Amino acid sequence: MNPLNSMQTILEIFYLRVIDDKVHYQRKQANLSKKGSDPNRMIQSLIQEKRKNTAGDIEKKEFVIHSTSWRYMQPGKIVLTYVAYSDALEFENGKSKRLPLKKLKTITKKSRKPRSRVELERQVVSHAMRHIAFLIKTDKQSNFESALSPETKKVFKSLWVSLAGRVY
């Protein structure tokens, strides 16, 4: 069997929000191979679903949505990773994970490959947060900043040290 015929494309979305000194996140996946979907349309659909499930009304413009990376995973999967950041996101109790901002790491060539799903998620969240920080710093035409509170802008500006790094 030709391995390309069985290659799966997985869409991974990380919903993110900075609260105090931690980034809260929740991960969701969808199999694009089964749905035959455009990843950008699927992201919009998932955001719409998340907006309905969040207490209060979050407007579409209150989300920073960005494709941050892709990676190959054994056996035969391509994972496309997007982040959806909003200061208005609310997570159900026990439904999100937290990562202290001071533990966000820059991934370098010397970084070891994550040994667990939790380590990989933390690496992806670190990469995504730094990626958004990079875009805020360098892309004056983006509307990212308009979706962020002044406190969140300060957090992202403090994260800018170097490029986001590689995700394994």
List keywords for this structure.
168 residues; alpha+beta; globular
Q: What can you tell me about this protein's structure?
A:
The protein is an alpha+beta fold. The protein has one domain: Nucleoside Triphosphate Pyrophosphohydrolase (Alpha-Beta Complex). The protein contains 4 helices and 5 strands, in the order E-E-H-H-E-E-E-H-H. The protein has helices at 32-35, 39-53, 117-138, 150-159; strands at 8-19, 22-31, 64-73, 77-85, 97-100. A 5-stranded mixed β-sheet has the order 3-4-1-2-5, with helices on both faces. Helix 3 (117-138) packs across helix 4 (150-159). The protein is globular.
Compile the SSE list and pairings.
Layout (H helix, E strand, L loop, with lengths): L7 E12 L2 E10 H4 L3 H15 L10 E10 L3 E9 L11 E4 L16 H22 L11 H10 L9
Parallel strand pairs: 1-4
Antiparallel strand pairs: 1-2, 2-5, 3-4
Helix pairs in contact: 3-4
CATH architect. name: Alpha-Beta Complex
Instruction: Return the structural class.
Output: alpha+beta
**Count of all domains:** 1
Strand element count: 5
Mind telling me the CATH class?
Alpha Beta
Provide the gyration radius in Å. Answer: 16 Å
Question: How far from one another are the termini?
Answer: 27 Å
Main pleated sheet: 5 strands, mixed
What percentage of residues falls in helices of 4 or more residues?
25-40%
Q: What string, H for helix and E for strand, traces the elements in order? A: EEHHEEEHH
What is the average per-residue confidence, as pLDDT, rounded to a whole number?
80
CATH fold title: Nucleoside Triphosphate Pyrophosphohydrolase
How large is the count of helical segments? 4
- Proportion of beta-strand residues: 25-35%
